[in-house]
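WARN no homologs supplied; continuing
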Amino acid sequence: MLLQSHFRKFIFYFGLLLSGIIFFSCGTDEVFDSYTKKQNGIYFKLVAFNEGNKKITEGDYVFLKAIYKTQNDSVFWDSRYNAGKNYFFKISAKKLSSPFFGFLLNEYTNGDSLAFKINKKIFFRDVFDTIAPWFTQKDSIVNAEIMIEKVLSEADFMKFIESGDLRIESDQWQQKKSIEEWVLSNFQNAEKADSLLYFERYTTTADSMVKPGKTVTLTYKGMYLSGQVFDEVKEAKPLTINYGYEGQMLRGIEKVMRRLRKGENAKIIIPSHLGFGEYGSSNGTVPPNTPVVYEVKIIDVK
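OK structure emitted
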């Protein structure tokens, strides 16, 4: 059940596709031809420019069309198929100060299109908040094509949601409300790990921290918001993973695990975009766009 999530499914299948292909490094001149260097690790080329003068500011909602490719131009993520009309986010101070999105959002606006060649570590940290997956191990860059489709103020975004024109966005807004209500009813000392990702620790220790590269043994219990259990790994047969490698856990669990130590346990409420996504679980147990709750216990960290 944990081998799910929207981005991870594509990493898995795309990785299988690439497993027999040998990657060759491109020379610097060939890779960055006609691109302008913005800073170390980020090169860009303006494809289309809109003469609008609206500056993107903190609190705005930005909708993107994006295609992400390996160094050899093999597509591994396309917003048309991976996110539909749902590739948007609220602009935070963190986004505006990040190396990649910060440059894009501070310099450009509605209607602008750009092509990027980005250091893979910067890209996966900024875009997916994770480490570079195994199929990019011989690559140094990610190719990205991005169009800023529209920019809405919070007031306009609310009108857009309430209009009901896009069912996915409307569903996401309802999901936000249900998660926040659940947190208020079930958590006494909630901590926030990401957008709509909340957790509460039930025990704390000063033992080893979960970090990338560590071997982590854990148990978990997956539930709907109602409390009904749909998946469980018990202490008699715990799960052992090498933390930090793609495709082993739901993204929401990974993000919380790195805040936990050996011997600690926590309850996590996971929004669908960090859980089973718009398609739900592969076996149909978890429906599309469904938030879930997990209880996780870190048994050992080596």
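The CA atoms of residues 280 and 286 lie 5 Å apart.
OK
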